[in-house]
Amino acid sequence: MPYIGNNPVGGGFHKLDNLTASSTATYALTLGSAAYYPETANQLLVSLNGVIQAPQDSFTVSGSNLIFDSALTASDSIDFVVALGDVLGVQGVTDGTVTTNKIANGAVTAAKLAAGAVGGAGSIAQVQFTQLTTDSTLSLAAKTDTVVTGFTVNITPKSTTSIIKVEAMWFGEMLDTPNTYSHMFFFYADTTKLGYTGAASNRNYGVAPATRTYSGVDNTETPDVANLSFFHAPNTTSQVTYKLGVNVDSADTLYINRTIGSSDIYNHQRGTSFICVTEILQ
């Protein structure tokens, strides 16, 4: 359908700087003395000795170079080179018209997604979590680092410079022995224990203990809670497995998502726990 007035023009159309033929097939393209980079030979209109040349057959492009299919001589004349529009120098692209085939191989990479599409430094690249909604128990040996069953989550970082925020909440109860208070929760990154990194000596160390609510009159129906956070720099784009661990002074039983008392009464509560990892781009 014809337009009223001038046809709309999209893109930049340029007559490139003059080229002088010599005994070579390769010529540097410039526009205003600056290197010009066509995206494809099909973008150029080239006249040689008064004859328009066929792109791809008579010439190709590489970077900012025009390459004829055979070397010229000083007696040849490169009449002109016209660039018929800059790639994507158009007024707009109709919705739904950009297909997979129009995206060059390798144009989209994990590094570009991490740096650009996902966001810049300080933005969240991904969140992975495991949520426990059923109850269980775990026997704990004295003075032994023990992985807490079910508190495991995997993450494959998008960037080697990312920081992983590891979080967990344990809801449950421990036995009422006095030594139970001498316990520490911590995290593993694969097999590496995370937490306090000073000289541990004989101390029990990790991230933090749980908040205890035990009292002598209701020692089987007062749930305990541990809320833990730790920032870890794994320096990898391979999968990392994070786990929750605990170390107790005396042999004990860890009750998960439940109180010690298990009768079907109001004060024997049930709850949920989780472990979560958040990748933060740097």
Strand-helix topology:
Blueprint: E1 13-15, E2 26-28, E3 30-31, E4 34-35, E5 44-48, E6 51-52, E7 59-62, E8 65-68, E9 78-84, H1 110-117, E10 124-132, E11 136-140, E12 146-155, E13 163-174, E14 183-189, E15 192-194, E16 224-232, E17 240-248, E18 252-256, E19 273-280
Antiparallel strand pairs: 1-9, 2-8, 3-4, 5-6, 5-9, 7-8, 10-19, 11-18, 12-17, 13-16, 13-18, 13-19, 14-15, 14-17
Could you describe the 3D structure shown?
There is one protein chain. This protein is mainly beta and 282 residues long. Strands 10, 11, 13, 16, 18 and 19 form a six-stranded antiparallel β-sheet that branches. It has one helix and 19 strands. It has two domains: 13-84; 119-280, Jelly Rolls (Sandwich), CATH 2.60.120.1340. The model has no long low-confidence stretch (mean pLDDT 87). A hairpin with a 2-residue loop joins strand 14 and strand 15. It is 3% helix and 39% strand.
Sheet-strand content, in percent, reads 35-45%
Number of strands: 19
Query: Percent of residues in helical segments?
Result: under 10%
Can you name the CATH architecture of the largest domain? Sandwich
How far apart lie the N and C ends?
Answer: 52 Å
| Biggest sheet details | 6 strands, antiparallel
The Cα radius of gyration reads 34 Å
Derived from helix and strand composition plus strand pairing, the structural class reads: mainly beta
In CATH, the topology of the largest domain is named Jelly Rolls
As for the number of domains, it is: 2
For the residues shown, what is the average pLDDT? 87
Low-pLDDT residue spans: none
Name the helix and strand elements from N-terminus to C-terminus, one letter apiece: EEEEEEEEEHEEEEEEEEEE
Q: What CATH first level of the largest domain would be assigned?
A: Mainly Beta
Helix segment count? 1
